[in-house]
Design a protein that fits this description.
This protein is of the alpha/beta class. The chain contains 5 helices and 5 strands; from the N terminus they run βαβαββααβα.
């Protein structure tokens, strides 16, 4: 089973991946981790895409994606989880990462990228800051049910 968790920076993708991983014990890849597979980026990307394709019906893999172009690596049959957040929440979280200060160029970049994933196809949509624990629990339960179906097929 492959789970693709995607969205903008600081929306909670990695946190969600960790919560899901506590239940299904998957291999987690983030961003361009796949570059470790080969010295050449194009070859590494092909190897990773093949690995994800093979994992759809076999292994448990969570791929955390923050760049739209990496969505193309998700194979057919992957569970696609979109995580979004209000722009002000993203800015607050990003500022915390930067020790409390959000430089103007970074703020402008966040504003420009905001909403860039909103129209992407997804199986589950989580709105950070608006979802309660039950919604996250339901999301994780759905993924576990999908994993069980994958093991049976």
């Amino acid at each position: 089973m492959v789970i693709g968790i995607f969205g903008e920076s600081c929306v909670g993708k990695s946190t969600l991946a960790e919560h899901i991983n506590q239940k299904i014990h998957a291999q987690i890849y983030t961003g361009k981790d796949y570059l470790r597979l080969a010295k050449n980026e194009a070859i590494a990307k092909k190897l990773f895409a093949k690995q994800l394709q093979e994992a759809v019906h076999r292994d448990s893999v969570i791929y955390v994606i923050a760049e739209k172009e990496d969505l193309e690596l998700l194979p057919e049959g992957a569970i696609r989880v979109l995580v979004t957040a209000d722009l002000e929440l993203i800015k607050t979280r990003f500022a915390a990462r930067m020790h409390g200060s959000l430089p103007v160029p970074v703020e402008k970049m966040l504003e420009k990228k905001h909403g860039s994933f909103d129209q992407e196809r997804c199986d589950i949509h989580i709105e950070a800051g608006r979802e309660d624990d039950k919604t996250l629990s339901d999301c994780i339960s759905y993924i576990i049910r999908m994993q069980d179906k994958t093991k049976l097929s």
